[in-house]
Specification:
4 copies of one chain form a homotetramer. In chain A, strands 1, 2, 3, 4, 5, 6, 7, 8 and 9 form a 9-stranded mixed sheet that branches. By secondary structure, chain A is of the alpha/beta class. Chain A has 13 helices and 9 strands. Chains A and B meet through helix 10, helix 12, strand 9 and helix 13 of A and helix 10, helix 11, strand 9 and helix 12 of B.
Chain lengths: 318, 318, 318, 318
């Protein structure tokens, strides 16, 4: 039963898979409730932890933002503030004369993959205002932010990582925040969870098919990644369902169940034709993606623009 | 094991579910390949057929349009022509002085539910041209078509059926073509299948949550329904997976498997929180929905505007 | 110098044209500043007033909403509140058991013509909630609102007035609010002015090319029209420019200026080809239309849903 | 009467302005009709030509594409082929191992400014296919194309020129094609004309407010610019109207007309408030921009992908 069949971009889920198998992976998990929002950290240790989770060593923070698209403004603002606090913990020390670059990864034309570009569209960019109107910039209490949506390989013919790297080389930010859609193994996590880390995005991750790594090492500056699960791999979903069945019943006690072959047959049958390699997402992805992007951009704006009250945030955006 | 747990709007699938259980439902199925396109008819008989499929008696035609979004123009046109031929079989005899109304049901803001409005947007409407410029109308060989997108209850506060009925009462078409998104039980059928019938749309059907029936009886004129499965109910998908597992293994022979309770537990667990009542759809719904809508509108335009060659179709649309 | 050359849908502008010519038209104009917002009423008298303005007798209220797309939330809410107050003056007495229907006229695919559909999309519709959940409805303090976007003749093949009338006949509202884009003669009025009246919309008005009148007489119930100038007719703009020139200079004293012929020549020359019958609008129509629609929908929501505070308005919209 | 009051990005129009004043500017104009499409070249000479037109010396080709949004496919393809031929004349010699980069300048959210990004979206990008699947690449007859939409300063906080330059430095194309919206002085030229040149885009040009020059000199590789007039500066339109009036009448013979002051007064009056610095565009910008972008992308695809027949072009785009 190979792991590769189960796709998840969440470190916490990779750890869960190990835990379900009773396989210790040395990942240290901590849960915290901050202002009614659950924040879970999973520390992946070098070596065994990396091998068994398939994630680079580091601390992965999962913020349970919940169903943002149903929030009133009070709860929205509270959740954005908690998320902003977690982002702050990952940001390097402010460098007054440099900016932070937000890169919104993904394809704006595929709804569940559009969260990165949609976050970008709501970033209050100020790098140019600082240059053009320093007085205004200082009086409002802006930080210096720039933002790009590099598109995806199929739209540009250029690896996303190449574009991001080239812009970094040009404008020399002191940190880059990468925002991307991820895949999860559970429908219930779709768009209700945000994963933060400082280890970058790995090849083959998520839905955007970025083939080149983007990390502090490859980009040359500190990287903060913000990932939102917006799709579930259909095969992973099927697999988990089946495993639950085995685990929760006395089926496994029969011993005669050749689970792996059976699994392959069923997945083959159910997804014959177009189902293969299918990512699935909620029907309401449009509104879900829009509101989740608004939450994340609000959190980033809060973290950088210390002078703006969250209630006035909307007025700086067109 | 109640049927209500498994949602499908396709008569053929309802029949499949019965067949899998070895339950004869009196539905007569016929398969035909027309110009390389598979066309299946399922005749639901009154009485037992209706009870066991949950569909009104009538003939349901399923056209396997395939993955339209990957077609070249030759295959696209061939498929549209076959689909148009099947629509023709359902249309009532032409009434020269009246029009046909196309009603595109669903919510244009939810991608998988937007197929109806998207078809409407590509209908070559001509009812007004006939009145304003009869010479042009005749010379091109138009038929008389009108089209409305009535929106959904949550957008208008008015039942879709009420709006459609009121427009029918006003403009007196001799037939209404309803286009709507449906739910299927198989990922592989999503957007690769079109169901045609003349029995109308039933309460609770599909994804658009129309609560009032639209049928020849309720609308007072012949109804042709064109439905496209664009979502799968997550619970139905899970159920089918589990049943496949049981059916394909020696698990059922143990006899000890309390399948129903187990099923409920697993679904509960997997979809706890937001998963409940979740409809899922492919990640690429945007492009899939767009191209499928183009196919259906092309087929309808072909059926009604006898004077237009399929190759020139695009020129009558803005 | 025929009037037909100068297109304006604003009664106030029709009066201005007369005033500029020194032609008394019996229109009584009153200006009021309410909470820093200028509100002007123009009362068109039957007979001479109608003939010289080309507008049906009645009171036309012009609210100078200003450049909404640049407002902070305080000013936005203040302006919406004043606009709501003016709408209230035109609404008939509340009929508890009936709803008000908002009809958003125009073509959603042509930005400057999309203000009607965009307002509709932000109306908090409640007619169905009242039926489905009376307790919720009462506890929040909703009024009963329904909303439709009937599209335009070229999209539907059906006159807008026919669709609106058919829905009115079906659901029997006690009042209909029509929202439409208008044409103005001044660039400076584009999207900075709203005209309210209870005389309906006239044939040939505005940009939406509705050919059939929609008035209390034709629709059978009280009509409140909300019009927003979003385009300027290019010929009207040219004409006004030229007339200004003549008026402001000693040119007219030469007497030899055959102004009308000259005008025709110039307009011909400047707009040869595509310029003829051209409506023009600001480059930023997208953001302007969006924000102005938000203002108008907020004002309508305020007028009808007495229980909702303007600050919480956004939470009732998806 | 200063030139700065009249904004045009078209070299041909700058020359027209001089010609109308009877001021020789040394620009050599040639007209050619190719396959029913008018192609005009204006050669701006160094020195006097540059000073009087405000354009860098070089050859500017104007292709009268006409009202593309009303074409049937035959005329569309013919026009695209002529345009492609003119692009070919400006492209440097093919370098087999390098790509051409298309940069679509402008703001995708402002319709008349979105032509660049919209062209990009329809470019058949192949740079990555060449690397990933050389056999496919060769068999179809692709050329190597990459494409980016760098956004505008207000969205990114980064000068467009900086982003374009950084990507050029990274991927080393042998030529960059810049596509941008321009301003014209005549309504009749809007979206019916395309200007091609190899002199780059100048600071302050067009509507996208790019402040930094993009030229062969600044970018380090050959530049081909494709500009489409999509807006008219309202003040320029007014000015031209007035000048026509003077020119076409015996007004100027009075001698007493202080034209400049008068002009300022009138423009002031007409555009008081929001009219200042207003760009105007046709009401139907949405459809116009979309179809014009399709024409330009088709022409670019034709120029680079020698193996694809124009009739099959659509099949390589999603």
């Amino acid at each position: 039963m190979e792991n590769y069949k189960r796709r998840t971009d969440l470190a916490l889920e990779a750890h869960e898979i190990n835990a379900e198998k009773g396989q210790p992976d040395g990942v240290i998990v901590n849960e915290n409730v901050i202002d009614e929002v659950m924040v879970t950290t999973a520390e992946v240790k070098p070596g065994r932890g990396e091998d068994l989770t398939g994630k680079p060593a580091g601390v992965y923070t999962t913020v349970d933002i919940g169903r943002v698209w149903q929030y009133d403004s009070v709860r929205f603002n509270k959740t954005a503030t908690v998320l902003s606090g977690e982002i702050n913990k990952l940001l390097p020390k402010l460098q007054e004369d440099k900016c932070i670059l937000v890169a919104g990864l993904g394809n704006v034309d595929i709804t569940p993959d559009s969260i990165g570009p949609k976050v970008c569209a709501k970033i209050i960019v100020t790098r140019h205002i600082r240059a053009l109107n320093r007085e205004l910039y200082d009086s409002i209490g802006f930080g210096s932010l720039a933002a790009i949506s590099p598109g995806v390989l199929g739209q540009t013919g250029i690896e996303t990582a190449e574009i991001v790297k080239s812009v970094i080389d040009k404008i020399s930010p002191y940190c880059v925040i990468l925002v991307d859609a991820l895949s999860s193994r559970k429908l219930s996590r779709l768009a209700t969870t945000v994963q933060l880390c400082d280890t970058g995005l790995r090849p083959g991750a998520g839905v955007s098919n970025s083939r080149s790594e983007m990390s502090t090492e490859s980009l040359g500056i500190p990287v903060v990644s913000i990932g939102v699960p917006t799709v579930v791999d259909a095969a992973t979903l099927a697999y988990d369902l089946l495993e639950e069945l085995i685990a929760g019943s006395d089926i496994k006690s029969t011993g005669s169940c050749d689970f792996d072959n059976l699994y392959d047959d069923i997945v083959e049958k159910l997804m014959s034709g177009s189902g293969r390699n299918m990512f699935i997402s909620p029907k309401e992805s449009d509104v879900i993606t829009k509101e989740t992007a608004r939450l994340i951009s609000t959190a980033i704006n809060l973290s950088l623009h210390k002078g703006i009250d969250i209630k006035d945030m909307g007025e700086y955006l067109s």
